[in-house]
Design goal:
With about 170 residues, the protein is mainly alpha-helical. The protein is about 80% helix and about 0% strand. The chain is built from 10 helices and no strands. It has helices at about 1-15, 15-20, 25-30, 35-50, 55-75, 85-100, 105-110, 115-125, 125-130, 140-170. Helix 1 (about 1-15) crosses helix 4. It is globular, with a radius of gyration of 17 Å. The chain starts with a helix and ends with a helix.
Length: about 170
């Protein structure tokens, strides 16, 4: 999920910035990424946006995660492992938050009432607020809110494709 949210964030927020850079500076930034796999990943995301195989893989990973979370919460709720917060929930919170702040979360959870309920519960949890939410500046929130919706239609199309492929494979 970490790479998936990174790729989604990058495809939403940075291509515009990168396109306005002089080519020489943009290429220098890519050359300065020491890990060749990470460089390839960011270049693909920059060049192809949501259509990058890396972004599509991240979207599919979130689809699997939120489906599993919906099923799990239906059995255990209100938290992933029962009545109390656990490391499982804490680990999932920042990734879910980033999708929410980008305005993309509902694409995965609009038809998943248990996940929606869990997320509403998490947002009000004092430890979430002090440990994550309150540490993000209004400028960062504003940037995410401005750029996330730009890719929402494409992300929705990929989610629909993933769901069709999953249904076809199950038959």
């Amino acid at each position: 999920l970490f790479e998936g949210v990174t790729d989604l964030s990058f495809s939403a927020m940075f291509p515009e910035r990168m396109r306005h850079m002089p080519e020489e500076i943009r290429q220098k930034r890519f050359r300065n990424i020491g890990d060749p796999r990470r460089r390839d990943r960011l270049m693909s995301t920059y060049e192809l946006g949501v259509q990058s195989p890396f972004v599509k893989h991240g979207i599919a990973a979130y689809e699997r995660a939120f489906k599993m979370l919906e099923d799990t919460l239906a059995e255990t709720g209100p938290w992933i492992l029962g009545a109390n917060a656990s490391l499982a929930a804490v680990n999932l919170m920042p990734f879910t938050a980033r999708l929410d702040y980008l305005g993309l979360l509902d694409l995965w959870v609009k038809d998943r009432p248990q996940v929606k309920k869990w997320w509403a519960f998490v947002r009000e949890w004092p430890s979430f607020k002090s440990g994550l939410r309150d540490l993000i500046s209004e400028a960062e929130f504003s940037e995410m809110r401005a750029h996330g919706p730009k890719i929402a239609d494409e992300v929705a199309e990929v989610i629909a494709e993933v769901r069709r492929n999953t249904a076809a494979a199950a038959n």
